[in-house]
Amino acid sequence: MGTTNKYDWNQIQTDYDAGMTYRDIAAKYGMSQQSIATARKRGDIVTRNRSEAMGLRVEKYGPNVMGQAARDKLAIRMSENNPGGRSKWFTVAGKKVQGTWERDFALYLEEHGVEWQRGQPLAYVLDGKERHYTPDFYLPQFDRYVEVKGYWWGDDRRKMQAVMEQHQDKKFVFVETTDFAAVADVVLAPG
What we know:
Layout: H1 9-17, H2 22-29, H3 33-42, H4 50-61, H5 68-81, E1 89-92, E2 95-98, H6 100-111, E3 122-126, E4 129-133, E5 137-139, E6 144-148, H7 156-166, E7 171-175, H8 180-187
Parallel strand pairs: 6-7
Antiparallel strand pairs: 1-2, 3-4, 5-6
C-alpha cells in the first residue's frame, strides 16, 4: 500500500476500514468506483470479501437491505426488460402451471378437492394498446379467477387494475403468500 497516482490510498484505506463503501469513497474523493477496483488490483487498497461486505451492509442498513423504493425501481427495470419465460413449468393433475408458487397452489387445490383450470386469456386495453392477460387459475365452482403473486413487478398493478375495470363481471382474488390455508376463506368463499 502507499500513495499511487493522485490519491492518498493510506487515508482511503483508513476510511474504507472504518466502514465506508466503494460508493462512499468514490463520492468523498471524487473518483470512479472503477478507480478503486484498479487500485485494489494494484494492491493500493485491501477490500472486504463478499461475506464481510454483506455483514457490514446488514449492520449499517438492517437485514432488509433492499428498501421498498429500491424494490419498486427494480420492479420497473425487471418489467421493462423481462423477456418472460424464465419460470419453470410444472404439470399438476395433467395441467401446466408456471413457477413453484403456482405449482404449490395447484397442489393445495388438488388436496382440498377444488376443481381448477388455467384461466382463458382476457383482452384489455392499457396505454391505448390491446393486450391479453391470462389468469393463473380459474375456479369454476366459485366462478373466480385467482392470481398468485410473489412480487408485483413494474406495471403489474396498473395492468390488473385495467383488467378488473374492463372485466367487472368477473371476480378476481390475489394470493400473495404461500400460506394458502390463511387465504382459503377468501379464495374459496362462496359467492
